[in-house]
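Sequence in, structure out.
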Amino acid sequence: MFNEQLEDLTQPQRDRLAFIELRLRFIGEFRRQDLVSRFGIQVAAATRDIGIYKDLAPGNLDYDTKNKVYGYADGFTPVFEFPAERILAWLSQGFGDGEPSPLRSWIACEIPARLTKPGLDTLACVTRAIHQERPLKVIYHSLSSGETEREIIPFALIDNGLRWHVRAFDRRSKDFKDFVITRFKHPVILKYSDVLQHEKSDQDIQWNRIVELELIPHPDQPRPEITEMDYGMTGGMVKVKLRAATAGYILRKWSVDCSADHSLRGPEFRLWLKDHLALYGVKNAVLAPGYAVQNVADAGVECD
């Protein structure tokens, strides 16, 4: 039904309607001025686009007359079906918010597909909770704890290269953790539950701590000069700054040997962390290749 109605519209109109839907579904709100700013159209044209979208899907949006904002309605039914990759690219990089359609590359390019991707309805609920700064009630499935009901306060998405996580305060453990989004069931935004000060992102020490790491060519790999070229090193080193909460994921993704004595072997370990003590106090350093910790449970990562 939606496809037939969309066929009568121009491509620019469909792109603007897709933008309205993206804002509603994944952010939870939009204003007329958002259309004006994003597409460089007049207010009257934006008003017409909103009217067209309301005709297509009258149950998708509510209007707050006091704040002059359109909000996500409980009866929401998507008009557009976006691939998860496009949604995640839009959320994390801010592009691709027009009508979903096959994209033609200008040159031959092969990008590996992800084995896991979150369901869009679940992702949309998570991202609305993040934008609205509201608690989220979910059924969470963990290898260590099994199925549990959680109330979390999510505030950021994390791509660890394999899976998408959400960083959140967990009211069950009273700590900040990472949760794998594909393990959420039946998420519900708690509209009438206040977020307390100690549950806010500025209280997350691991998230707000920045660690500076020095990476050098692995001493046991041949031709270090080629590694220096590949990674654009200066003086045989590249310095990176990472959030402590993401450092373990990224070092694992980059296959950086984080052992004190560069003892890891294999062609994948082309980089070595020059000073492994730079990871001291980083909870998820347990995920970094070769980094020795005594207690894996201290990692504070709900991704088992």
